[in-house]
Amino acid sequence: MKTSSDLFQVEREMEWQPAGNGIQRQIMGYDGQLMMVKVKFEKGAEGTMHTHYHSQATYVASGKFELNIGGETKTLVAGDGYYVAPDVPHGCVCLEAGILIDTFSPMREDFIRT
């Protein structure tokens, strides 16, 4: 498994990986302690409720999303963000097609293709 990204990530040179029905992701910069991931959602796509041991902070780059974090629900739009503590259940529904920029600490080893 590769443990760090290239120095530069050029979008047009990077592959999009399937991440669920109507969802794709691009792995951006990372090392063992940090990872940034761009996640593209089609309208109506659902990031199903899940947990992980990573801390997560996310920026809404575009679109409109209904987020559920630990049982609390809020609608967020471009310019907003959210934080998910380790092991807290969370998920979202995309209300208007958009992109989330996820950051994780430590890196999500499960996202790296071997």
Describe this structure in words.
This protein has no helices and eight strands. 0% of the residues lie in helices and 57% in strands. The model has no long low-confidence stretch (mean pLDDT 96). With 114 residues, it is an all-beta fold.
List keywords for this structure.
mainly beta; eight-stranded antiparallel β-sheet; 114 residues; globular; single chain
How much of the sequence lies in strands comes to: over 45%
Number of E-type strands? 8
Secondary-structure element series: EEEEEEEE
Instruction: Note the gap between the termini.
Output: 5 Å
Outline the secondary-structure elements.
Blueprint: E1 17-18, E2 23-31, E3 34-41, E4 46-50, E5 55-69, E6 72-77, E7 81-84, E8 90-105
Antiparallel strand pairs: 1-2, 2-3, 3-8, 4-8, 5-6, 5-7, 5-8
Summarize the structure.
It contains no helices and 8 strands. With 114 residues, the chain is an all-beta fold.
